[in-house]
Amino acid sequence: MTDTITLTGLVAYGYHGVFEHEKRDGQEFTIDVSLDVDTRRAAASDDIADTVHYGELADAVVRIVTGERFDLIETLADRLAAAVMEDERVLATAVTVHKPHAPIPHAFADVSVTARRTRSGA
């Protein structure tokens, strides 16, 4: 049995992109994270230690987005998903990186990449 914890619309400033101005000037990225977890233990104990602390999750995501620079948001999404999966309670994750200010010379609402990872045997 799995439940879902979702963190939606987390905004962090990063320096990711293939163009020099993106690496120099940076831009806002918006991150959505969905975690498949079994929350029954936490529900029974009512103790945050028995679940994934979404405040700490947000801190970890922001550290990655604002830390190392990547050319591709595919790489950023992969690194974020790998970090989420370090918590053994997470059975699967979907991490979406939105780049709403991508250097595209046409009107658009958003560009995003979603990385999905599943623990083997889950």
**Overall CATH architecture:** 2-Layer Sandwich
What is the helix tally?
A: 4
**What radius of gyration results from the CA coordinates?**
16 Å
CATH topology value: GTP Cyclohydrolase I, domain 2
Q: Compute the number of strand runs.
A: 4
Sheet with most strands: strand arrangement: 1-2-3-4
Tell me the name of the CATH homologous superfamily.
GTP cyclohydrolase I, C-terminal domain/NADPH-dependent 7-cyano-7-deazaguanine reductase, N-terminal domain
**Helicity level:** 25-40%
List the defining traits of the structure above.
FolB_dom, folate biosynthesis, alpha+beta, 4 helices, 122 residues, GTP Cyclohydrolase I, domain 2, four-stranded antiparallel sheet, Dihydroneopterin_aldolase, GTP-CH-I_C/QueF, single chain
Please describe what this structure looks like.
The protein has 122 residues and is of the alpha+beta class. The protein has a single domain, classed as GTP Cyclohydrolase I, domain 2, CATH 3.30.1130.10. The chain has helices at 20-25, 40-45, 54-66, 73-85, and strands spanning 3-14, 27-37, 92-98, 112-118. Strands 1-2-3-4 form a four-stranded antiparallel β-sheet. It starts with a strand and ends with a strand.
Quickly describe the structure.
By secondary structure, the chain is of the alpha+beta class.
Furnish the topology, listing elements before pairings.
Elements: E1 3-14, H1 20-25, E2 27-37, H2 40-45, H3 54-66, H4 73-85, E3 92-98, E4 112-118
Antiparallel strand pairs: 1-2, 2-3, 3-4
Helix pairs in contact: 3-4
